[in-house]
Amino acid sequence: MPTAPRPTTPVSTDVAEIERALSRIVYLTSRVRQHDRLMARAGVPLDRAAVALLRQIYDAEPLRPSELAARLAVEASHVTRQVQQLQKAGYLTRVPDPDDRRAQLIQLTSLGRDAVERIRDAGRRSMEAALAAWSPEELRQLATLFHRMVDDFLAYKDGEETPESAEASAAG
């Protein structure tokens, strides 16, 4: 397998530390044990894939299965199987697409909506406990910077665009 050429300009120490911290956060939050504790606190018996799918639908429902697969960056067949399981368990339902009578949209049932809300509440409470020593101003700054970072990540597409060029093209 060919390897990509290494960049010739070094990455700033601050950017390297941000990448390192994000890697640690992803590792800590994606561990099976962490997921199991969160599900126990929320009282919801779902695996990580199901939770990711339900969260996406919660934030943007109703969705076509193809759109859901694109948002999750997975194959459509994976979404179809997961949706079928969650529908059988009562978390999801299918409704006709008003723009195309042949298509269906996926949306949460009240059980699905309640599950996502309980999971998010349990996660927020854990985060609040972990950050209890932080001042309100520090929490506000972190939230602002995280949102800014996510927005910049979304504006940057596979090395094609920097946040600055995205801003310039949006303004022009």
From TrEMBL:
Pfam families per the UniProt record, alphabetical: MarR
The source's superkingdom equals: Bacteria
Q: Name one GO molecular function term.
A: DNA-binding transcription factor activity
**Any idea where the HTH marR-type domain is?**
15-151
Concerning InterPro entries, the annotation shows: HTH_MarR-typ, MarR/SlyA-like, WH-like_DNA-bd_sf, WH_DNA-bd_sf
Coiled-coil ranges per UniProt: none
The family database entries (PROSITE patterns) matched by this protein are listed as: HTH_MARR_2
Please name the GO terms of the biological process aspect recorded for this protein, alphabetically. response to stress
Q: What is this protein called?
A: Multiple antibiotic resistance protein MarR
* Protein encoded by which gene: marR_5
